[in-house]
Design goal:
Largest sheet: 7 strands, parallel
CATH superfamily of the largest domain: Glycogen Phosphorylase B
Helix content: 25-40%
Structural class: alpha/beta
CATH architecture of the largest domain: 3-Layer(aba) Sandwich
Number of helices: 16
Number of domains: 2
Radius of gyration: 21 Å
Number of strands: 15
Strand content: 15-25%
CATH class of the largest domain: Alpha Beta
Shape: globular
């Protein structure tokens, strides 16, 4: 496969954030870097200020809306702009009218935090050269997770069906659920997947069933697994460590409080690496826990050297989880929920433990028993490290897969 992008004029990456504070933004920035290394011109259209990337990557143009995320806005502004942010639509429309060519690809990533569904309207004119990336389920499910946050169970309802609309599944309240449903309906009105035959790039093949249930055809669902780079070049001897570690956004749906309550019950040391809306509250509730805040990759790599296991207590079906693969490939076994899409391969290869992470008693039991079994932890650690080449998809291979898809997309559009 050629590594040059001769058949591609430019790739336009569209994402709420350019600042790397989550998995999706990290992947968008990584993709921009790798595309420019292949001499492909890149424009990043972002909802935030774009300041972190200005002048940082040669060959990338950053077009910024310079607006805050919905949760940082006053209530009325969040409600209205979350449904439809006209500024986002104008910004994208202006860029397309000035710069579009027949060989420009539009790659939509996340849009629900700042940009809103307004971005889909100007993309009508370039729909044959547009692809969507499913880092989560917001293209298919109003709450973005196919999960009932009230019951902690996976949702099997058809999105926007009567049963869906009458179910209070939102993590906040039923009014929020209806608002999310309205936003989803607006997105549907602006983008017809069936008519446009738009492809969706999934990050795990097990996402397919949920997207099909939402009405997207199987032929439009393609899997390109996320890339991951191990935190360590040598195996971290997890069996010599004691800490149970969470890495990620500290939000209610991530189940961090479940993990910390379980660790306290098990009498195990816990560490939390990340930031989010519940950080301050949890730090007050659990003074015995080490809270490190947001860390760059190098910081995480250093802190995780003390980890016995990574704990992923998400209350929704985790589609992939970069930290899972990055930790496993470094020799750190994982504890993850039954709903995690990586559960089958992790448990089959005996490099982690699946349990009901929403049950504090069950999670505490797993933490306690694994804390006393050095031999089991050592076995999982060694096996995970030996599989690192299978677990971690190299970023260059991942980029080459995406570029190959871009060329296919452009060939179909002519």
């Amino acid at each position: 496969m050629s590594e040059r992008g001769d058949s591609i004029d430019r790739v336009v990456l569209i994402n709420d954030f350019s600042k790397v504070r989550g998995g999706a933004a990290a992947l968008v920035v990584l993709l921009a870097e790798k595309l420019t290394e292949m001499k492909i011109k890149v424009t990043l259209i972002t909802g935030d200020d774009g300041r972190d990337l200005q002048g940082e990557i040669d060959g990338i143009e950053v077009v910024s809306l310079n607006e805050p995320p919905l949760l940082s806005r006053p209530l009325i502004a969040a409600v209205t702009k979350g449904l439809y942010n006209p500024s986002s639509g104008r910004m994208l429309s202006d860029w397309i009218s000035r710069n579009d060519t027949a060989k420009t690809v539009y790659h939509v990533h996340n849009w629900s935090h700042i940009l809103s569904a307004s971005i889909f309207r100007p993309l009508h004119v370039v729909n044959r050269r547009t692809v969507m990336h499913a880092h989560d389920y917001f293209l298919a499910c109003p709450n973005g997770a196919f999960a009932n946050y009230r019951t902690g169970k996976e949702c099997t309802l058809r999105p926007l069906s009567f049963a869906c609309l009458s179910t209070n599944c939102d993590r906040r309240n039923y009014s929020q659920k209806l608002w999310r449903a309205a936003r989803h309906r607006i997105r549907q009105a602006f983008w017809d997947f069936e008519n446009y035959k738009t492809d969706v790039l999934m990050i795990h093949e097990r996402m397919r069933e949920s997207f099909e249930r939402s009405g997207i055809a199987r032929s439009q669902l393609l899997t390109i697994r996320n890339p991951s780079v191990p935190y360590s070049d040598s195996r971290i001897p997890a069996e010599d460590n004691q800490e149970y570690v969470f890495i990620g956004r500290i939000e209610e749906e991530k189940g961090v409080s479940d993990f910390l309550n379980a660790a306290r019950k098990a009498g195990a040391p816990a560490r939390v690496i990340g930031e989010g809306s519940t950080l301050r509250e949890l730090a007050e509730q659990f003074p015995e826990v080490r809270f490190d805040g947001w860390q760059p990759r190098a910081g995480i790599a250093e802190l995780i050297k003390s980890a016995r296991m990574l704990v992923v207590p998400s209350r929704y079906p985790e589609p992939f989880g970069l930290v899972i693969m990055e930790s496993l490939a470094s020799g750190i076994p994982v504890i993850l929920p039954h709903s995690a899409l990586l559960k089958a391969e992790v448990t089959h290869q005996e490099i982690g433990i699946a349990c009901d992470t929403g049950s504090i008693d069950e999670l505490a039991q797993v933490i306690q028993s694994s804390g006393m079994d050095d031999e089991k932890i050592a076995s999982m650690s060694r096996t995970a490290f030996s599989l690192r080449d299978n677990l971690a998809v190299d970023p260059r291979i991942w980029t080459a897969q995406i570029v190959s898809y871009y060329r296919t997309l452009l060939s179909r559009s002519t």
